[in-house]
Amino acid sequence: MVSPIWQHYFLLEVWLLCSARVHPSVSGALAENKPVVALESTIITHGMPYPHNLSTAREVEAIVVAEGATPATVGVIQGQIHVGLSVEDLEYLARSQAPLKVSRRDLPYAVSKGLSGGTTVSGTMIAAHRAGIPIFVTGGIGGVHRGGENSLDISADLTELGRTPIAVVSAGVKSILDICRTLEFLETQGVGVATYGITKDFPAFFSPRSGLKSPYRVCNPEEAAELIEGTLSLGLQSGLLLAVPIPNQHAAAGQLIEDAIQAAVEEASSKDIKGRDVTPFILQRVNELTQGKSLEANIALIKNNAKVGSQIACALSKQINERKLRQTTRRPETCSSDSPLNVVVIGGINVDFIAKGKTEKLLFGQTNPGSVCQSFGGVGRNIADSLSRLGQKPLFISAVGTDSHSQAMLSSCKHMNTSGVARLEDQRTATYCAVISESGELTLGLGDMDIHQQITQQYVSTFKKQLLSASLVCLDGNIPVSTIDYICSVAKVHAISVWYEPTDSDKACKPFLSDSWKSLSYSSPNLAELCTMNKTLGFPTPEELPSSPEEVISCALALSCPLLEHLHCLVVTLGANGVLVCGEHEAGSVNLQPRKRKMRGRLCAVHYPALDVTMEETVNVSGAGDSLAGGIMAGMLLGRDTSSCVGMGLLAARLSLASPHPISPKLTMGSVDPNKLQTQSWPKSTFMWID
After folding, report:
1. What is the phi-psi region of residue 45: left when phi exceeds 0, alpha when psi lies from -120 to 50, beta otherwise?
2. Is 574:611 a contact under the CB 8 Å cutoff?
3. Residue that finishes a domain, picked among 279, 295, 326
4. Of 97, 252, 493, 561, which residue is most buried, by most CB within 10 angstroms?
5. Would the pTM count as exceeding 0.90?
6. Distance from C-alpha of 676 to C-alpha of 682, rounded to nearest angstrom
């Protein structure tokens, strides 16, 4: 169930299926939860003469952009509702002859007849809300007309505020209206009203004071955003009016304008001008009587409203995004997709500092020449990153602190599903410093990884629904033993395929401390990690690891055999000696595809030589193994044969070696398709039986 605070963000797709056209800049900003400000268009079609209307519209949009938000001017053009207007659209409306004034009542008629017009406050509110925009900026709203207690001449703006959950930023209510009854009517409609500023004085458009008070006051964008978020979160389906007084430098002409308004009102009455024609007539006469001063003040207050409204929109966007991250930490299941997932990755995420020497031999105890760069790593993160770049949509479960590192980290992972990454107070985001030689080999590594212990069984269990729907669950050795045991127990009961990436020799033993390892389907150790696994289980292991390629392969075969009693497949990484894939035989190769039930056939292995990479091409080796694993998993999930899967992994690893980042930004399905290398010398694999 999606909470009300998020519901208006998910209306865009439905709205697009109807008659509205949402400008790409607006839909893109909404999709990324960036601030968007809706703007009306009757100010263009009915509020000002040409060219003042067009220049003002452009200037207002420019103010919104300057404040960091996206403008979304709403209008109707040839029967289609537009949320966000192009330059040509603005010009078209500004020059339109006899355009329609489009309120709620008029929307169906304008659309059905293919007409064009400017949307009023109520018309703009409807379109903005259905597009998912929570803030709308205008000059002033309509209200209860003088004598409205008898004529019932009440603007549709007020009833719209009572039934459409959107925040309207305006300069209050025009003094040509009955402001007291307007505020009473808003109260009856359940509309919250707050003055933006240092007092509760309710403004009257050209005047900062109407003689009446607002029920509430907000002092700054953050307070206004909190009030808006609170209004939306309650799901009351009523709006909020934020009244912004006209800037003081333009309020000085207020009395002159008020006198002109009174004269224009009397003239309208004597000429029997009624209904929707009253406001345009009065505004035009006031502009004439004040010799343009009212138009200047009108433009000034609209620009000020746009500035204030944009600042509030930015503050609201920030608050919602921060709250969403906190909710992810507390209730991760509400932020994760209900649709089936191909893969879930659980493991470490950290900031990497890579210090690369300019000499092959680094001398300890003194400063060595070199370069230092920052990147973002962690075995789990790297695998999830590579899978995401290869067309999969893995859910990544991990933990970070609330420090600056976490902000940078999550910003770098926007292409990934990080809804499972908990942000924890009073915790440090994991950091890792690697000192590598000129050739890219690791000389020394230092890690602050304590936060990985917070990826607990209790936290991961909140994602049980996602675990049960996944085709593959990948764990890395950074997570606690209890968490690994929990996932293995779930996998055993529900026949879930689990891939264990051991991370390093010390952590390779974790699943093998109990019978949990028997529930694993895959693992991708190097030779040292494979030794640790065997030693933990009490199987004999060599005292020293071999060095010649033939002995390395022979040793890997011998150490794989006991584990294949329960594991479906082992991918043993052998560095410069390539990859050895061991498992059950099928059609002349190792069967790499997941199976719901374990079957024991004849065991075999296929050795794949490493791809040639020169020392000049090697930047670092920190993510090569993770890229290999991610490439192989992506191939498996696509149903590729074993050779294609390993080929994808090897090509991904080669890209990683040549990149300063653990996972190369150049990694795509096209860049790791083995079929594209048919004209090159692809290393020949070697098949062998495991007796």
Report:
1. alpha
2. no
3. 326
4. 561
5. no
6. 11
CA dist 546 to 531, 543, 551, 556, Å?
A: 12, 9, 6, 10
* C-beta separation of 660 from 621 below 8 A: no
CATH code, 134: 3.40.1790.10
Query: Among residues 305, 202, 213, 212, which one has the least CA distance to residue 250?
Result: 305
- Specify whether 376 is located in the same domain as 312: no
In this structure, are 302 and 352 located in the same domain?
Answer: no
State how far the alpha carbon of 85 is from the alpha carbons of 49, 58, 61, 64, 513, in Å: 19, 10, 10, 14, 63
Tokens representing 612 are: 């040639």
Same domain, 196 and 316: yes
Judge whether 333 lies within some domain: no
CA R_g for the chain: 33
Question: Does residue 132 contact residue 114 with C-beta atoms inside 8 Å?
Answer: no
Report the DSSP pairing between strands 395-400 and 343-346: parallel
CB 225 within 8 A of CB 315: yes
Write the DSSP string, 586-645: ETTEE--S--SS-----EEEEEEPPPP--TTT----TTHHHHHHHHHHHHHHTT--HHHH
In this prediction, residue 189 has a pLDDT band, given cuts at 50, 70 and 90, of very high
* Strand ranges in 1-147 using DSSP code E only, listed in sequence order: 20-22, 36-39, 70-77, 80-83, 100-102, 117-119, 135-137
Q: Which domain holds residue 580?
A: 340-689
Could you tell me where the DSSP H helices lie in 67-120? 87-95, 107-113
Please, which residues bridge with residue 355 across strands?
372, 435
Structural domain includes residue 331: no
Under DSSP, is residue 457 helix (H, G, I), strand (E, B) or coil? helix
SS3 per-residue string spanning 536-600: HCCCCCCCCCCCCHHHHHHHHHHHHHHHCCCCCEEEEECHHHCEEEEEEEECCEECCCCCCCCCC
- The structure tokens 């919250």 sit at 192
pLDDT digits (tens, 9 = 90+) for 352-376: 887 888 887 888 888 888 888 888 8
Q: How many other CB atoms sit within 10 Å of the CB of residue 270? A: 8
Q: Which of 40, 67, 160, 229 is catalytic?
A: 40
Closest listed residue to residue 116, CA positions, set 85, 143, 158: 85
174 is catalytic: yes
Q: How many domains does the chain have?
A: 2
Are 281 and 345 members of one domain?
Answer: no
Among the residue ranges 6-15, 254-263, 296-305, the one predicted with the least confidence is: 6-15
Q: Is 101 a catalytic residue?
A: no
Amino acid 677: pLDDT: 60
- Determine, yes or no, domain membership for 335: no
Q: Of 303, 326, 349, which residue constitutes the final position of a domain?
A: 326
Residues 262 and 405 grouped into a single domain: no
Read off the pLDDT of residues 131-160 as tens digits, 9 standing for 90 and up: 889 999 999 898 898 787 888 889 899 999
Stated as kind and residue range, the H or E segment containing 391 is none
Burial of residue 49 (CB within 10 Å: 0-12, 13-18, 19+) is: exposed
Q: Encoding tokens for residue 104?
A: 């709620």
Sheet of 370-377, strands arranged across: 370-377, 350-357, 431-436, 442-448
Name the active-site residue from 67, 101, 160, 174: 174
Pair 300, 351 in one domain: no
Task: Tell me which amino acid residue 602 is.
Answer: R
Asked if residue 332 belongs to a domain, the reply is: no
Specify whether 602 is located in the same domain as 458. yes
